Amino acid sequence: MAARRAVNQSRRLPDSASIPLVSSLHPKSRSTPLLSVGLVLLGAFLLIGYSYSSSGASCTSEVHRAIPFLKKAYGQSMRKVLHVGPDTCAVVSTLLKEDDTEAWGVEPYDLEDADSSCKRLIRKGFVRSADIKFSLPYRPKSFSIVIVSDALDYLSPKYLNKTLPDLARVSSDGLVIFAGYPGQQRAKVLELAKFGKPVKLRSSSWWIRYFVQTGLQENAAATKKFEQAASKRSYKPSCQIFHLVS
């Protein structure tokens, strides 16, 4: 199980007194070249930040947006849901607010940085940490639907061969996979420090071939209902979503 590493996402700006631009604004100083350099650097940072933010949100965040459409696709089967992936506490909290829905979560990474609401879910037994490269501590068909996000992208085929069948084992009505697009590579690189390993983003054709090779079948009925519901609301997911038969 890969440990989370502390990530400092904010960059400390130097004090204004130490910035050459401040002292160089005197009319007799050489302000124009320094000001130009400062503006260029600022523009570069803004462009880099935009490129990362626009290249795709996490697939776990996408799960929140997809819940209404998953309910349309699976109906009563959404009564007992297991989510597997990072930030599972947030997903479980959202699912528990839905009518007639019970939810549990498995966090593939350490929960040492969990906030108070997440720790409360852990104490109540709704969320647990587990290494998904090994068999999950649940009996067969313990859940009606299993949703996995931002977890399989970090597994090699060696471990996928064990993890995917096990996820299907604990679900009775379907397995839903949220996987990143290869075009999200730049955004996912930022998560390297968080998850401790490089991401392996695959194309839809790769996943489809893999499902066939491992004997996992597409849930055509759920796929059709999901796409119809999404189309009516003009919902376009930022991640690949696969519906599989358990």
Task: Give structural notes.
Strand 1 (80-84), helix 4 and strand 2 (102-107) form a beta-alpha-beta unit. Strands 3-2-1-4-5-6 form a six-stranded mixed sheet. Residues 1-29, 44-56 and 186-190 have low confidence and may be disordered. With 246 residues, the chain is an alpha/beta fold. Helices cover 43% and strands 14% of the residues. The chain has a single domain (58-245), classed as 3-Layer(aba) Sandwich (Rossmann fold), CATH 3.40.50. Helix 3 (59-74) packs parallel to helix 4 and helix 3 (59-74) crosses helix 10. The longest helix is centred in the first third of the chain and has 24 residues, at 31-54.
- The CATH architecture can be given as 3-Layer(aba) Sandwich
- What is the strand content? 5-15%
Q: How many strand segments?
A: 6
Largest sheet: 6 strands, mixed
Count, helices? 10
Which value, in Å, is the CA radius of gyration?
Answer: 22 Å
Total domain count: 1
How widely separated are the two ends?
Answer: 25 Å
User: What CATH first level would be assigned?
Assistant: Alpha Beta
The CATH H-level homologous superfamily: Vaccinia Virus protein VP39
The run of helices and strands is HHHEHEHEEHEHHHHE
The fold-level CATH name is Rossmann fold
What does the average pLDDT come to?
80
Helix-strand makeup class: alpha/beta
| Morphology call | globular
**Helicity, in percent?**
40-55%
Low-confidence stretches: 1-29, 44-56, 186-190
Q: Strand order, biggest sheet?
A: 3-2-1-4-5-6
